[in-house]
Design a protein that fits this description.
Length: 370
């Protein structure tokens, strides 16, 4: 992140180690827990993330829930999930998601959100014109307010979101729903952001005890080190250091055709579903989103030694521009409550050339406890 908030984060915040936070499969981390403490409306809600292999716990995030927001069970990558219902029955969704390690640049994340509501990408130079400062607790982050349309229904849909980096984790706060409802809830969303605080571990029970008659819900994130599969790597691929978001990363270089990269990652749940992920990848290639009906044009069933998977192939040909096409191939594997992504992305001719090697690599994967 390159905005003004980095200098305003307190020294104690900088010292927090969040390398194993977020519901991702990490390299070299042990098992961690995300505990969600529920509280009555307008009381503080605390979320504690604990790295069980570290000598000390990570920080806790706390917030005050605005009136009218209804807490839902946290799931997938979310540590906070809320719904807002208008008198006419329309609903908006609010999420709080932490991503550890390389969560992408401000531009990447703003364009990812824009793609979700059918808006074109903005350039780096145009980014300041569509963003503003967000007060998140006692520090500053990035706020966006964007109006587009829900791809399938074409109904006016608004996203108000905020991005805050703390140590090596980026926190995403997003409200999305019908234009009028989200616009009307923007002041409450800003107050919600302002109420956010991070505290040292061990204080959650004192700050936000569970409501009478309610018990704390617990979800566990498997440790990537013990759950990492094995595979056969093509000889022309070069292993690269994997970030905390990736289990593995490989570089492919062809002096005549260009470059590509292969990555392996795993997330709990369905990570938003196939359509959302396809449109996220299309956005990365500068392409417009597709509808559910068009998914069959870019996906095919894939059988991986008896395991059902989906193969996604997308190419931006850039005809007539003089630029080389870019493309990607992704094998999406749902297994034991997780979604695995095996992704090759890069110069179009390299992706085409390496497709057979990529499929052979995916076929070779041997999962733990299989």
């Amino acid at each position: 992140m390159k905005l003004m908030w980095a200098s305003s984060i307190s020294p104690s915040s900088r010292g927090w180690v969040l390398s194993c936070l977020a519901v991702l499969a990490f390299n070299g981390c042990g098992k961690e827990e995300v505990r969600v403490y529920t509280a009555p409306k307008d009381q503080t809600v605390a979320v504690t993330a604990t790295n069980l292999t570290a000598s000390s716990q990570g920080p806790q995030i706390h917030w005050t829930l605005p009136a009218g927001w209804v807490e839902k069970p946290a799931s997938g990558m979310r540590v906070g999930s809320f719904s807002i219902t208008a008198p006419d029955g329309q609903q908006a969704d609010v999420s709080v998601i932490p991503l550890s390690g390389g969560a992408g640049s401000d531009l990447d994340n703003v364009n990812r959100w824009r793609g979700q509501i059918g808006l074109a990408n903005v350039t780096k130079e145009a980014l300041p014109g569509v963003t503003e400062k967000a007060e998140i607790g006692d520090t500053s982050g990035l706020l966006v307010d964007m109006l587009g349309a829900e791809p399938q229904t074409t109904k006016p849909t608004r996203i108000v979101g905020a991005i805050l980096p703390v140590a090596d984790t980026t926190w995403f706060f997003k409200m999305m729903g019908p234009d009028g409802l989200v616009d009307g809830q923007k002041p409450a969303f800003k107050l919600f952001l302002k109420s956010v605080t991070f505290h040292a571990a061990g204080a959650s029970e004192q700050v936000a005890p569970t409501a009478p008659g309610k018990s704390a819900s617990v979800s566990e994130v498997p440790a990537s080190a013990s759950d990492k599969p094995s595979w056969d790597i093509p000889t022309s691929w070069q292993a690269q250091p994997a970030s905390s978001m990736l289990l593995a990363r490989f570089a492919i270089t062809d002096q005549a055709l260009g470059k590509a990269e292969v990555t392996v990652s795993s997330f709990p749940g369905d990570v938003g579903g196939l359509l959302a992920n396809v449109n996220r990848w299309r956005n990365q290639l500068g392409l417009a989103p597709v509808s559910e009906a068009d998914l069959t044009k870019v996906t095919t069933p894939l059988d991986l030694n008896g395991v059902k998977a989906t193969l996604v192939e997308i190419e931006n040909k850039k005809d007539g521009t003089g630029e080389q096409s870019n493309g990607l191939i992704v094998a999406v594997v749902a297994r034991e409550g997780h979604t695995w992504f095996f992704k090759m992305m890069g110069d179009g001719r390299v992706v085409v050339k390496e497709k057979a090697a990529f499929l052979k690599f995916v076929q070779s994967v041997r999962y733990p406890n299989a």
